[in-house]
């Protein structure tokens, strides 16, 4: 058994003051750092969009943030511009321990497809490569923490469970956006897929 800690999107834009701030997003950083020494591997994910990304409301005439649009791959929530490649907003929170990371994996770089999950883009079929990395390192168990519980943590955890990893989400080290009941739906969905909520 080999166990990885996956730290999802602990970036400035998801923390108070950021473009897509998750309430209390910064409150989990110290606890995440404290957890790192106990794992065989530490992996950080980074939401990493090109300017003008198709998930930005500003790219859709007449649409505003948090509205839904139909994309070729299904419904997509539109977001404020966030985590644009190379900007301060896309950088990790300054207090996050990035030194301990074995791998930093970026996602959302495809202009036409969003990527909540660390494993697959929102078409649910284009891989990021993370599965292969984990399998070739013999990692079987994953603990997930980070932002946001109901979007990127949720999609990553459900994909990982579907791929056969043993997945635990540490709820106290995650924070949610909670859009129209999305947190309750995410918790139910994760439980249904066999994700342990600790
Ligand atoms: C996220 C919305 C848009 C997340 C990323 O990290 O949960 N949410 N992009
Ligand atoms: Zn994003």
Summed up:
The chain contains four helices and eight strands; from the N terminus they run E-H-E-E-E-E-H-E-H-E-H-E. It is an alpha/beta fold and 198 residues long. This is Nicotinamidase.
Write out key terms for the chains shown.
Rossmann fold, Isochorismatase-like_sf, hydrolase, alpha/beta, six-stranded parallel β-sheet, 8 strands, binds pyrazine-2-carboxylic acid, Nicotinamidase, binds zinc ion, two-stranded antiparallel ribbon, nicotinamidase activity, globular, 198 residues
Structure description:
The protein is of the alpha/beta class and 198 residues long. Among the domains are: 9-53 and 80-115, Rossmann fold, CATH 3.40.50.850; 153-197, no CATH class. Helix content is 20%, strand content 23%. The protein is built from four helices and eight strands; from the N terminus they run E-H-E-E-E-E-H-E-H-E-H-E. The protein has helices at residues 29-35, 130-136, 149-162, 182-192, and strands spanning 3-8, 41-47, 68-71, 74-77, 103-107, 141-147, 166-175, 196-197. The strands form two sheets. The chain has a six-stranded parallel β-sheet. Strands 3-4 form a two-stranded antiparallel ribbon. Strand 1 (3-8), helix 1 and strand 2 form a beta-alpha-beta unit. The longest helix is centred in the last third of the chain and has 14 residues, at 149-162. The chain is globular and about 50 Å long. The relative contact order is 0.20. The structure holds pyrazine-2-carboxylic acid (VGL) and zinc ion (ZN). Pyrazine-2-carboxylic acid is lined by residues 9, 14, 47, 79, 116, 147-148, 151-152. Zinc ion (ZN) binds at residues 47, 49, 55, 79, 82-83, 108.
